[in-house]
Amino acid sequence: MNARLLAPIIALLVTPSAQAAIVFQDDFSDGDTVGWVFSGIDAGEWGASGGVLNSSIGADDAHDGSIGFALIDGVAASDHFRLSADVKVVQATGQGSDWGHVGLAWDVQDANHYTTSYLRTHWDHVTTWSVDPTSSGEYWLADPSGPTNGVFYAMSVEVDYLNQIFELTFNGLSATLSGTNFVTYMANAGVNSGGGIGLIQSGEEVHYDNVVYEDLTLANNHVPAPGSLALMLAAPMLRICARRSIRPALSRGGMVGVGRKAKTHERQENRENTGLPGYGELAIKQMNLRRISEITSKKRRECW
Fold first, then answer.
1. For 262-298, b where at least 16 C-beta lie within 10 A, e where not — what string?
2. CATH number of the domain bearing residue 127
C-alpha cells in the first residue's frame, strides 16, 4: 500500500524546521484506495488503476451539478496546511472535449459545507470559493496557457488560518489572498472548523495522482535542521523511545536495546584497555557496571 499516514515523530526526525511534516501521501501505484473515504455523487465509483485515482469507474461521466468527495481517512485540516496533487479532467459526457471540473477541497462537513479550489478547463481558470456560508463570490486564477482535458496539472493550496493567508499554485502560476479577502473566500469567516480534507468532483471522470497533505503547524516545533548538533543528539534518543513504545512489555520492558548498547561499550573498552597500566580486570568490570547504570538511568528519565 502506497497510501501512507505517517507518524509525526518520524516526520519530525527527518524534517527541518523550515519545512512541514508530511502526514499523508498517495501515488496510487498499489492499485487500492486504502486511506480514503468517499461520499456524495458516485461515491461507489472511485477506484485506483493505472497508477491514478479515478473518480468515475463505470459511471456515466455526466456533469449534473452534484458534488462528490474523496477525503483522507481520519484526517482533519490543521490550522496551517498544504494540500497538493496532480489533477486531470478526462471527460464530461455531453459537454465536449474541453469541458470539466477537478480540484481540491477542505473544511468539508458535507456536500453543503466546504471550501474548494478547482480547475474549470472550459473557462481556463481555477476558482476558489466556499459553501455555507457561501462566500461573497469566487476568486479566479486565470491560466493564459489554456488548460485542457486529458492533461495532468500540478495544483496545491496552502491555507494558514492563524495568519489568514491563502496561497494557490497551479501549473506554475500562483495567487495569494490575505486579510479581508481571506475571510471573504474561506468558509466560516476564515475560521477553521476542523473539517475533512481531500479531493472534489462533480460527476465527471477526473483523475488524481501524487496527493500530499502536509501539516505546517508541525514545522514550528523548534526541530533543529538536519546536521545540527542538537538533532544529532536528539535523534538517537527519539529512536530509542519510539522503539520502547512499540516493543512488547516484557520484563524490564524496552531495556534490551540499552543493555545491548552497554555490552558493546564493554567489549570495546575491554579491547582498548587490555594491557594498559592500572586497568585490572576488576577495575574494568566496575567501570562498565557504572556505565550501564548511568545509561539505564538516563534513558528512563529522557523517555518518560
1. beeebeeeeeeeeeeeeeeeeebeeebeeebeebbee
2. 2.60.120.560
Mean pLDDT of the chain: 75
- Which residue among 220, 242, 275 closes a domain? 220
Q: Based on the fold, state whether residues 19 and 117 are members of the same structural domain.
A: yes
Angle between helices 281-303 and 256-273 (to 10 degrees): 150
* CA–CA distance, 285 with 20 (Å, rounded to integer): 47
The strand pairing partners of 169, in sequence order, are: 156, 174
Domain match, 127 and 265 both: no
Nearest to 80 by CA among 218, 287, 236: 218
- How far is the C-alpha of 235 from the C-alpha of 243, rounded, in Å? 12
Per mean pLDDT, which of 217-231, 251-265, 274-288 is the most reliable?
217-231
Domain termination residue (choose one: 186, 220, 254): 220
pLDDT for the residue numbered 226: 35
What is the pTM assigned to this prediction?
0.68
Structural domain range at position 39: 4-220
- Structurally, how many domains does the chain consist of? 2
Where is average pLDDT lowest: 19-28, 76-85, 203-212, 276-285?
276-285
Q: How far apart are CA 102 and CA 39, in angstroms?
A: 16
Residue 126: pLDDT band with limits 50, 70, 90: very high
